[in-house]
Amino acid sequence: MMGPLLELRRRGAEVHMRTLAAGVEPVRAAGLSCEAIDPAIEAVAMDDHEARSQVAAGKRAFEVWAERARLEVEDFGGALREVSPDLAIVDTTTFGAKAVAEREGIAWAESRPFLLEDKAPGLPPFGFGLRPKSGPLGRLRDAALGLILARFDKDVRLPTANAGRLAAGLPPLRSIEEARHRAPLTLYYTAEPFEYARPLPEGVLTVGAGTWDPPAELPRPLPEDERPLALVACSSEFQDDGEIAAAALDGMGDRWRLVVTTAGVDPASLPRSGDAIVERFLPHRPLLEQASVVVCHGGMGITQKALAYAVPVCVVPWARDQLDVAARVEEAAAGVKLKRRRLSPARLAAAAKAAEACAPGAARVQAGYEATGGDPAAADALEALCSPLIANRRK
Hints:
Layout: H1 2-10, E1 16-19, H2 24-29, E2 33-36, H3 39-42, H4 54-83, E3 88-91, H5 95-104, E4 108-112, H6 135-167, H7 176-179, E5 185-188, E6 204-206, E7 229-233, H8 242-251, E8 257-261, E9 277-279, H9 285-288, E10 293-296, H10 300-308, E11 313-315, H11 322-331, E12 335-337, H12 345-356, H13 359-371, H14 374-394
Parallel strand pairs: 1-2, 3-4, 4-5, 5-6, 7-8, 7-10, 8-9, 10-11, 11-12
Helix pairs in contact: 1-14, 4-5, 4-6, 5-6, 8-12
């Protein structure tokens, strides 16, 4: 959310944020008021990586969000009472906070940094990592998988949405379609050609990729030689994907200057490789300005940030929504996918080299993001959403 929020602040708005404890000081340093959410919410750890299948992992993720939702109701309600905002912007996975925003009847928008899950004509169902397929076989495939997805929506997604609503004192909803896009505005952090061409639900506005980084400096200068720079990034929310970083360190050091950000993975657990820089967290902006390729798990954040800098990606989808992200990378010709079960140092090195050749596709995605108007367009939409309230107050 930081790009649109900083744009609103630049225009004179007063902005208050509630976020994870580790994010408070960077947000304050950027000039916004910020407090930590209730630590009890953060204590409900996302442990979906321990599940034994993709379906079980998805179910566990929604169970975690449902557990957090019950705690969010009082926490977010207290923040609204304290600040009395003209407008609230709420993350898409905070089901309790979204229910409170709806209950209070305030102007509010949903911040969606993940792909849409809605059905759309001619597109594969979400969650299977598939590219569009035309003709009778494509329609048969999508119809069959759509039945599986409908069951998951009913048994898993809808109960989580209703957990937040019930905790907030709202009546439960009867279908997943009712539960989606209840905010008057959804800021959708992507755009074509990364996202498939599709009709967007009412109120959904594509605003490109989020690219904000907290200010920080690299711990030491990058090696200076003729090798291209590769940024290797593990998931910011732990999912035990250190094997990607280990394979990169084992297989890519000869041809690439490597910078590895491990996030939740302990750098000490990884092999040492020549002059590679390995840190838990580093600012990505100065690296992406020089990188020739990004190797990652396929999270929406790092994948789209790389493409926003026209850097092609080599995706090793690990779990969560990452199969669908990888499919869009391939469809946009903005990089390549290497299946998790095929990961090895040699194969990753070859895939990274193949991804490097996808720079034209990455540039097309960058242009698509920029065509949305980005942070200023998002700020315009947010101002329009709350302008009637402000006008009435001034009267």
